[in-house]
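Suppose a classmate hands you a notebook page containing two proteins, each written out with its sequence and a corresponding row of structure tokens. How would you begin to make sense of it? This section walks through that situation. The first entry is reproduced here exactly as it would appear on such a page.
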Amino acid sequence: MSNQRYSPTGFGFLPPVVKNLLIINALFYVATLVLGNTMRIDLTDYLGLHYFASPHFATYQFVSYMFMHNPHDFSHILFNMFALWMFGSVLEQVWGPKKFLIYYMITGIGAALIQILVIYIQVRNVEMSLTPDLIDQVRETGFQVLQNNQNFGDPLMAKLNELYNSSTIGASGAVFGLLLAFGMLFPNSLIYLYFFIPIKAKWFVIIYGAIELFSGVYNTGSDVAHFAHLGGMIFGFFLIMYWKKYPNKHHNDYLQ
């Protein structure tokens, strides 16, 4: 492990992939606001990640969902883009643009796969307690019910409807992958919580991962995709370990 230290480059200069990712996320966010306010078009219905049994599911959503953020909560995109700048700038300096983009996309798509798997397990558990007729009713009319800002009176049907027709959005899965990578490459670098509490990167990653696991298991009522966050970290870990075992021609001392 090299003793060299890297730090964010500042907003005056950004490596190309991070810069373009920031621009694309900002453009999608503005488009979501404009289309939602002027034409009542909710882009998350088309670009957010839906469960594969939903009539609104499309395979491109495994990528497009990463560029969508909650238009009603500016902190969602703010914190994701801040983390992308903070950790992504360092990692792109180390890996180079191509390798960094591969890592970012794989962790983001991996997070989506884990999220779909978790939803599948939840759907199966709920469907076991419902009759086929009630399940068909949810599938056929559930989306329209939600569009009217309503849901089914039966709590199990309401839960199933949310699982079928809600969407996952945000770059958080890929961002958690970046956090994991930073912790593995620079384990003893200090991260400042709330800008003044120092903690080593390796402990920050471990603690944050444990919090996400606990929240995913016990805080099932939350609309935060905790397992997607973990999915980004899991795919990031195995990808880094793969690169370490099979280093390509662009030798990287930080993976030795």
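The notebook's second entry, a different protein, reads as follows.
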Amino acid sequence: MTEVTDKVERAIARFERVTRQLDERDTTGREAARRERQRLNAGLGRTALRVAITVGLIWLAIIAIGLVKPIGMFGFLAALLVTGVIAAILIARGRRGVISTPAPAPDLPNGAMVERFDSYIYRARAALPAPARAELDAISRILPPLKQTLERLETLDPAAQDARRLMSLHLPGLIERYQHVPAAYRQERDGEDKTVDQRLVEGLSAGRTALAEVAERLARADVAALETQGRFIQSRYGEERIDSEDASGS
């Protein structure tokens, strides 16, 4: 009876562990999708604003020309045509930038680089095997607090360089090299008896660990700075100091 009970308890514990992991992945996926929607909406808003400003400038120029010399019906139609063509070009460029998110450029500011990398791995996720998607989900969970920390640092800050290289070069390069391998060859084993899929997962796992270490190192530096500041204020303005000053003054 005890053995049966133990088996049931182990099965329940395993089920709870699996469902908890699934819930965490679902939450991560929803958060990543929410951030991507926000980026898409911001991109569409910037495109609409760009089109409105451009069209406004075109018609201001047309009005200025018309005040000097009437443009006539043909001029008006030509102005409409030019406006439509330019607006279509701007919309197409904006749409292309929204649909295809390239890897982060190495010269982006820290905050913008994290945003671009977050969007990049969200879009690359669907084309990767399930274990690799799990690693990308784990990386995605690191990015919001990492962005908050990196935004306060300069681009050339040594503390930020490892994270920048991982997000702009190493991890995108790993994903792109995997995508270049034909699907028929991805299950072939190399000299170490590992498949291309396994190499991808190991590389993503190493990158995730490195990003987590960078984030932790930066966060601990902030904690240490806070402790130092708190100790200074306590030593400078603490109750014992105030009491001693009152006593000397009396």
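A careful reader of the second entry would note: The radius of gyration is 28 Å.
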